[in-house]
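Why do we care about 3D structure at all? Because function follows from shape, and shape follows, mostly, from sequence. That is the central idea of this module. The next example makes it concrete: a single protein chain, its amino acid sequence, and then its structure expressed as tokens.
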Amino acid sequence: MVAGRPRLHYDGLMSHVRVFSIESLSAVHAFFRQVDHLFATLDGAREARGRGARIREVDEYHFRVLAGFTLQALPKAVEALRLEGGVIHDPADQWGEVTHPNLPEIGEPVFMEAKQRIAAYGHSGVAPGA
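And the structure:
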């Protein structure tokens, strides 16, 4: 279980937004707000699950809706950052092509517990019906 929101690449950018134009600031702030809302919701679900609550279909739908709104805010934020002089490197240099149903190649699990769960339940690490 992950405790708290992970540090994201945009965390370091937050201290620099004060030098952006008002148009750029609005778009970047909207994206930050959506990402923070999504992670806060996911953190709440993790905490609830830790108390024995089950993630229901309606919860899964809610996560997907929040993720969709976050993705809708992304193009405006990217364009705003480009206008502010940002450069986007092509991720194709780092990542290979993966199409459904294939998954990217991953290395051996680092922790024995994870390795045992994967051996028992597959790559999801979750028991069927859990």
